[in-house]
Amino acid sequence: MKEFNTIDEMLARNAAEWPDDVALVEINPQELEARHTTWREYSLIESSPIEAFRSEMTWREFDEKASRFSNLLLTRGYKKGDKIAILLMNCLEWLPVYFGILRAGCMAVPLNFRYTADEIKYCLDLSDASALVFGPEFTGRVEQIFETVPKVKSLFYVGDDCPSFADPYRAMIGYCSSKAPSVPLASEDDAAIYFSSGTTGFPKAIVLQHKCLVHSCKTEQNHHGQRKEDTFLCIPPLYHTGAKMHWFGSLIVGGRAVLLKGVKPEWILRAVSEEHCTIVWLLVPWAQDILDAIERGDVKLSDYSLDQWRLMHIGAQPVPPSLIRRWKGVFPNHDYDTNYGLSESTGPGAVHLGIENIDHVGAIGVAGYGWQTKIVGSDGVTPVEPGAVGELALKGPGVMREYYKNPKATAEIMKEPGWLLTGDMAEERDGFIYLVDRAKDVIITGGENLYPVQIEDFIRANPAVKDVAVIGLPDARLGEIAAAIVSVKEGATLDEAALQEFCLGMPRYKRPRRYIFADVPRNPTGKIEKPKLRKMYGADGLVAQQNEVKS
Known about the structure:
alpha/beta, 9-stranded mixed β-sheet, GMP Synthetase, Chain A, domain 3, 3 domains, disordered C terminus
C-alpha cells in the first residue's frame, strides 16, 4: 500500500482514482417514520424531498468541498497552525470541513455536541481557536458566548437561515476554488486538537500530529481488513476519535461509509440491509438494544438482507462477555473485535482483541498494529511482575505530542519518552490484557464520559444538601450509570422527586440515574472514599432497584 504523510493525501488519491464512486451517505431515518417504503424506492420518487432523508457525496465532491473550504480559510487570512473549531452534528459537511481545515495547514478542533455554552467557550479559549464552524442545533449556545471569545474572528454557519452574527458556509465556499491550495504539510506537523478530561471535569487539549492520524488509518485497516468494496456504517458522533478513526479504515482504501443519524434497532438493521453495509461499529447499549428487540419480536431478521454484514466491533467502554455470547448466538457468522484506546492515543486500536481471539472475550486484547504495551508500577515506568496489577502504558506512532499549553499534565502521563500512561489499571494473563479498574473516577455511560466533580458541584448548590458524592455503578445496558450519594443537612427536607427536579438544570446526559440518601464517607485528608462507596452500593441490588431513575 502507498505510503502517505497526511490523511489529506488519501482523500486526494481517492478523488483521483475513484472520482464518481460514492464516498459518504447521510441517512436521517426520522424523515421516514410514517412511510412504508424502502429507502431506495423513496429516493427514486421525483417529488420527494430526498435530501431531507438520504443524501450522498462522491469522492470528487468530497475533495472539492474540502478544497473550497480550505481556500476560504486562506482567503480570510488563516495560516498554518491556526485552530479552527467544529461544532456540528453528523452530516455530509462534517468531514469535508475537517479535511478543508487540514488542507489549509490549520488544526481541526472538534467539539462535543453536548457541550453547554460555557463549555464551548472554555474549549475555544483553551485551544486558542480563531474560527468556529457550527450548525443550526447550536445557534442558541453560540449566540450566548460569541461576543466573549475575542480570539474567534470568524463564525461559519452550516445550514439554512444563517443567523446575523455568522457567515453562511455553503454560500461562501461556492465562490472559492475547488483546486487544492499548495500548503506544504509534513507528517510531524500538528493536525488536530481533541478534548479529554480527568476527574476534575476540566477538559485538556490533546495535540495530535499528522503522523498520528495516518497511523490510525493503517491500524484500523490492519485490524479489520477493510477493502474497497466494504461499506462502513458510522453511527457515533464524528467529534469522537472512536467514530472518525474507525472510518479511517475506509478512507485508506477508498471505501464507502454511511452516516446514520439515529440508533433505533430497526434503523440500524435497515441501514445495514438497504445500504449493503459490511462493517458496523456499535456501543454496548446499541448492541444490547438490537438483541432485545429481536428477542421481543419487535424486529424480524427475515425482513432484512444481512448476509453481507461480516464484522461487528465494539469499543469506548467495557464489553460484557455475556453480550458477545448472545450476539454470536444470533449472528454466528459475524467476526467480532473489541477495541481499546483513548484520545491521547489517537482513539481506538492501541490494544484490540483481534477477530481470531473470540475465545478471549473479556480481555481488551493485545498490542495493536505498530503499538507496544506494558503494565507499570506506581513510578509510571517500571514494569510490574508478571500477572500483577499495574497501570497500562502505551507506546506507538499514535501517542499525542502533548496537552496543549499544559506541560505539567503532559509530564504526568508521559513520564518516559514515547510512553503514555492511560490511567487504567490492568493485568496480563496468558498474553492478553485485562482491565481491572480505572485509576480515574470518570464514569463511562453509553460510551460518553461523565465527570463526577461537575455533577457534585451542581447538586451541592441545593440548599438542603450537606454533602454529595457521584460514582459509577454497573449497568447491563449502558456499562455504567451515575449514582449520587446525597447527605441531607440536619433539619432540612429533601426527597428524590425534589432532587430530580433540581437536577433538570443540568444537561440530560449528566443527570444521575440513581439517588441514594446516606452519609458520604471521607478519609482523614477530606477526600471522598469512592472505592468504599462503590463497594457498598455497587452490588446492592435492592438499593439499585429502589433508587433507579427512569429517564
